[in-house]
């Protein structure tokens, strides 16, 4: 994605909301009224894409880029229909998916992370659909039957939300290419627990104000104004159930585009 495109989109989003860049009440009010995470098994369909035993897509509509090719995301990625993608706010959510034909499927569910969107075909019309990596799809089979399961092409499955667990990693913020002191764009990585982000705020150095960032696309949020002065603290509130976390001074004064800055904390790895 060209660096100018998210810049222009950020400006349009901010212009459409009069409350942008105003004092935000601790990052909690935006999450009021949200339903808790539903962990019941529900019906869906599933296909697979990429190499037969591959990791799935490179990058994807969430913007994680090469992170999808390495542990802890490697081989666990999933492209989902719009009802789960939620315009990008579903990025980072984790699901357990399993098929029900016990003649070829094990009773084991595979855990996938939302990293991409499949907008048409089987994914359209309000359907709930998972397009999984070849590796993830194959893991639903009984031992030795992965190739036979892939030959089915499309499966009826059940799914439910599950806690994201990134194996000891803390939440990180990647500063997107093109960011300046007047336009800051952040990609959020490795959120345990719910995994999704419903609101995000930024606090500059020596300031008491939490400024409301705007969701641009995928897992990317932006702030337009300035000049913006670091170090920056970032406050996140999850989308599915209102839980708030504050990473203080996580982005240093001398931050740079393409830099990734890791916090010292994460959400609880449970729902």
Strand and helix layout:
Blueprint: H1 4-15, E1 42-49, E2 77-80, H2 82-85, E3 94-99, E4 110-117, E5 129-133, H3 134-138, H4 146-152, E6 155-162, E7 172-175, E8 183-189, E9 199-203, E10 211-212, E11 214-217, E12 220-224, E13 232-237, E14 244-251, E15 260-262
Parallel strand pairs: 1-5, 2-4
Antiparallel strand pairs: 1-6, 2-5, 3-4, 3-6, 7-8, 7-15, 8-12, 9-10, 9-13, 11-12, 13-14
Task: Kindly describe this structure.
The protein has helices at 4-15, 82-85, 134-138, 146-152; strands at residues 42-49, 77-80, 94-99, 110-117, 129-133, 155-162, 172-175, 183-189, 199-203, 211-212, 214-217, 220-224, 232-237, 244-251, 260-262. It is mainly beta and 271 residues long. The protein has two domains: 4-33 and 167-262, Expansin, cellulose-binding-like domain (Immunoglobulin-like, Sandwich), CATH 2.60.40; 42-162, RlpA-like domain (Barwin-like endoglucanases), CATH 2.40.40.10. The strands form three sheets. The chain has a six-stranded mixed β-barrel. Strands 11-12-8-7-15 form a five-stranded antiparallel sheet, with helices on one face. The protein is elongated.
């Amino acid at each position: 994605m060209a660096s100018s495109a998210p810049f222009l989109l950020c400006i349009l989003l901010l212009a459409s909301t009069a409350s942008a860049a105003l004092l935000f009440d601790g990052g909690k009010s935006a999450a009021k009224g949200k339903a808790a995470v539903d962990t019941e098994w529900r019906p869906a369909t599933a296909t697979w894409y990429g190499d037969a035993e591959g990791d799935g897509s490179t990058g994807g509509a969430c913007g994680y880029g090469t992170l999808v090719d390495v542990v802890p995301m490697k081989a666990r990625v999933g492209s989902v229909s719009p009802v789960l993608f939620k315009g990008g706010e579903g990025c980072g959510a984790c699901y357990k998916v399993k098929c029900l034909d016990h003649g070829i499927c094990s009773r084991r569910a595979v855990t996938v992370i939302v990293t991409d969107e499949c907008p048409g075909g089987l994914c359209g019309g309000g359907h709930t659909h998972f397009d999984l990596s070849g590796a993830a799809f194959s893991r639903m089979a009984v031992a030795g039957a992965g190739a036979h399961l892939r030959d089915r092409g499309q499966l009826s499955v059940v799914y439910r939300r599950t806690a994201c667990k990134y194996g000891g990693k803390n939440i990180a913020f990647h500063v997107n290419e093109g960011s300046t002191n007047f336009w800051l764009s952040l990609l959020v990585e490795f959120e345990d627990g719910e995994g999704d982000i419903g609101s995000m705020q930024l606090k500059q150095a020596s300031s008491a104000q939490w400024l409301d960032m705007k969701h641009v696309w995928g897992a990317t949020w932006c702030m337009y104004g300035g000049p913006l002065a670091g170090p920056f603290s970032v406050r996140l509130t999850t989308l599915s159930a209102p839980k708030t976390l504050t990473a203080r001074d996580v982005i240093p004064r001398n931050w740079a585009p393409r830099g990734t800055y890791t916090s010292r904390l994460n959400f609880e790895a449970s729902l």
